[in-house]
Design brief:
Length: about 525
C-alpha cells in the first residue's frame, strides 16, 4: 500500500471526522485530559492510544457537545493519526472502521445475549457449578445405600446399588408421598433404574428438577391416553437387531440395557421389562447382514446403551466391524458417561482407541441439561475425546428440562466446554402417548435453536430434528425470497436483518466448455 493511499481517508473515517468536528467551550479538566491523550497518540507506536483519543473525542462530541477544534486540534493532525493507525494495523483497519463502526456493531450485539448471561447460572446451573451441593447429595445417598467409597467409584458398584424400586427411591430422594404412590403405580408397567451417582444429581427441594424429571417416572406416563404406535423396528428392521432407514447407515441394537432408564425413552418397547443378554448368534446375523451389503458405510452400535456391553464383547464387535472393508466409520450410542461416568476406564478407552486407529469411532451421547455435566462426567468426556475421533451429543427437547433459550443455550455451551459437540436436538416423539406431557411445540424449538445463530459458537449449535422414519431437519428456511437479478434475500436469524446475497452466475455455471482446464481441451486437440 502506498503512503498516499494510506493517508487517503476511507468513507468510515471521513464520517467519523465530520461527526466529531465543531467548536464549543471545553472545560479545563476535559481539555487537559484530551490534550494528554493527543500527546500520547502522537508518540504512539501502537494503535491503542490513537483509538483512545478518538473515543474521547466521540464522547466529548456526544455528551458536552464539543468538537475537536475546541481542543485546539486541526483536521490535518487527526488525519495524520488516522493514516498512522491504518499503517500499524495488520489488516489496514481504519480509525473510522474501528471507532465509528466496529464498536457500534458490538454494542448492538451485546443486548442479544444480556438476558441469557444474566439468567443462565440461576435458571440452568451446571453440575460443575452445583458440585458442592451434589457431593453432599452423594454422601447422603451413599450412606443410605450402605455403599463404600470404592462401590461409589466403580461402575459395578453403581450398577449393584442401582435404585430399581420405589422403597429405595423414597429413601434416596425426598419426594412427596403422593409422588411416591404414583411412581409405584407407573413402575407396575414401566421400569425404573437410577444409578446412585445419577440420583445424586437431583437437587433437593426443586419440585421439577431437570434431572429428576428424566429418571423418575410420573403419573402422566400411565394416565396419558392415546394409541401407541408400533416401535420403529417393526417396519425398519431388515435383519435381526438391525434398524435401517438409510442406504449407508445402519443401527445395531446390541443390548436392551441402560444404566439409567429415561422417562422419555424412544426405545421403550425395545427396553422391555428386564435386562437381557443377546446371543452371539443374534450379533452374527446382524454382522452377516452388514457384511453382505457393501453400501453400508457407517454402523451405529446402540441399544439400550452400547457401554452396557462388557469390554470383551465391545472389543469383539468393533473387531468384527473393522474387518469388514466397506464399514469405514463406527458410532457408539451411550448415555453411560452421563449417568455413570465411572464406566469410562482405561481398558474401555484402549478398546475405543484401537478401533479408532482402524477407522473413526464416534461416541454419541445424550445430555439434556447442563446439570448433568459434573467434574466427573466432564472428565470422562475429556478422556473419551482423546481416544475417539469425536464425541457428539443428541439431546431431546423436553418440557421443563431444556425448553427455553436460557436452558438450551446453557446446555450447549456447557457440553461444548466438556469436550462434547452438540449434534442433534430431537423433538420429543409423537409415537408414544406416554410422553405426550414432555413434548414441546415445534415453533418453540425453532426459536430456541435458531436463536443460537450469531449468539453462541457455531460448533456449539445443534441441528433441530424430527425423527419420523429417518431424521428430518426442522430448521426455519432462511431464504426469504429472490430479487429480479437472481440475488437471494437471506434472513439473519440473530437480528432479523435481511442480507442480499448474489447467487452464482447461471451463465458461468452453465458454461462447462470454458470451465477451468476444459478451455484448453480444444487447444490440445488442435
Ligand atoms: C439415528 C439413526 C441413524 C443415524 O442418523 P444420522 O442422521 O446419520 O445421525 C441411523 N439409523 C437409525 C435407525 C437411526 O435411528
Ligand atoms: S439411554 Fe437411551 S435407550 Fe436408554 S433409556 Fe435413555 S433414551 Fe432409552
Amino acid at each position: 500500500m502506498t503512503h498516499a493511499k494510506r493517508l487517503g481517508m476511507d468513507a468510515f473515517t471521513i464520517e467519523l471526522l465530520d461527526g466529531i468536528s465543531g467548536g464549543g467551550e471545553a472545560p479545563a479538566e476535559l481539555a487537559a485530559e484530551v490534550g494528554r491523550l493527543f500527546a500520547a497518540a502522537r508518540d504512539a507506536q501502537r494503535t491503542g492510544p490513537i483509538v483512545e483519543l478518538f473515543r474521547a473525542l466521540v464522547d466529548a462530541k456526544r455528551r458536552p457537545g464539543i468538537g475537536f477544534e475546541a481542543f485546539g486540534m486541526s483536521r490535518d493532525a487527526l488525519e495524520e493519526l488516522c493514516g498512522r493507525h491504518c499503517s500499524i494495523d495488520e489488516h489496514g483497519v481504519t480509525v473510522g472502521g474501528r471507532v465509528g463502526r466496529a464498536a457500534a456493531v458490538v454494542e448492538a450485539a451485546n443486548p442479544r445475549v444480556a438476558d441469557y448471561l444474566a439468567r443462565r447460572d440461576v435458571e440452568a446451573p451446571s453440575g460443575v457449578e452445583l458440585w458442592d451441593e451434589l457431593c453432599a447429595n452423594a454422601r447422603r445417598i451413599r450412606d443410605v445405600l450402605g455403599m463404600s467409597e470404592e462401590d461409589w467409584n466403580s461402575f459395578s458398584g453403581q450398577l449393584r446399588f442401582a435404585v430399581n424400586d420405589v422403597e429405595t427411591l423414597a429413601r434416596c430422594l425426598d419426594l412427596p408421598e403422593s409422588a411416591i404412590r404414583d411412581v409405584a403405580r407407573v413402575t407396575g408397567t414401566y421400569r425404573m433404574r437410577l444409578t446412585p451417582y445419577y440420583a445424586s444429581l437431583v437437587r433437593r427441594g426443586v419440585a421439577n428438577d431437570p434431572v429428576l424429571l428424566q429418571c423418575v417416572p410420573t403419573a402422566e406416563m400411565v394416565d396419558n391416553v392415546g394409541v401407541e404406535l408400533p416401535p420403529v423396528a417393526s417396519d425398519h428392521s431388515p435383519a435381526r437387531l438391525v434398524d435401517q432407514f438409510y442406504p449407508r447407515v445402519v443401527a445395531v441394537k446390541v443390548t436392551n440395557m441402560c444404566a439409567m432408564y429415561c422417562t422419555h425413552c424412544l426405545r421403550i418397547a425395545h427396553i422391555g421389562r428386564a435386562d437381557r443378554m443377546f446371543s452371539r448368534e443374534a450379533y452374527a446375523e446382524a454382522l452377516d447382514y452388514i457384511r453382505a451389503n457393501d453400501s453400508i458405510r457407517d454402523v451405529l452400535i446402540t441399544g439400550g446403551d452400547a457401554f452396557m456391553l462388557p469390554n470383551e464383547t465391545l472389543r469383539w464387535l468393533l473387531g468384527e466391524l473393522d474387518a469388514i472393508d466397506h464399514v469405514r466409520v463406527k458410532r457408539l450410542g451411550t448415555r453411560v458417561p452421563v449417568t455413570t461416568p465411572q464406566r469410562v476406564d482405561s481398558e474401555l478407552l484402549d478398546i475405543l482407541a484401537a478401533s479408532d486407529d482402524r477407522g473413526p469411532v464416534r461416541v454419541v451421547t445424550q445430555i439434556n441439561t447442563a446439570q448433568e455435566i459434573t467434574p466427573v462426567s466432564r472428565d470422562a468426556f475429556r478422556r473419551l475425546s482423546r481416544h475417539v475421533s469425536a464425541v457428539l451429543n443428541q439431546a431431546v427437547l423436553l418440557r421443563g428440562i431444556n425448553d427455553s433459550r436460557v436452558k438450551m443455550w446453557k446446555l450447549c455451551e456447557t457440553i461444548h466446554e466438556a469436550y462434547v459437540r452438540p449434534y442433534y436436538v430431537f423433538n420429543c416423539s409423537y409415537r408414544n402417548p406416554q410422553y405426550a406431557h414432555m413434548r414441546v411445540p415445534i415453533e418453540r424449538g425453532r426459536d430456541i435453536i435458531e436463536g443460537m445463530y450469531g449468539n453462541i459458537s457455531g460448533d456449539a449449535i445443534p441441528r433441530y430434528i424430527a425423527a419420523a422414519g429417518g431424521k428430518i431437519p426442522l430448521h426455519r428456511d432462511n431464504v426469504a425470497g429472490r430479487g429480479a437479478d437472481g440475488a437471494v434475500f437471506l434472513h439473519k436469524p440473530w437480528n432479523g436483518e435481511e442480507a442480499v446475497y448474489p447467487d452464482a452466475d447461471p451463465d458461468l455455471y452453465g458454461n462447462d466448455a470454458d470451465f477451468a482446464f476444459n478451455r484448453y481441451m480444444g487447444e490440445r486437440k488442435a
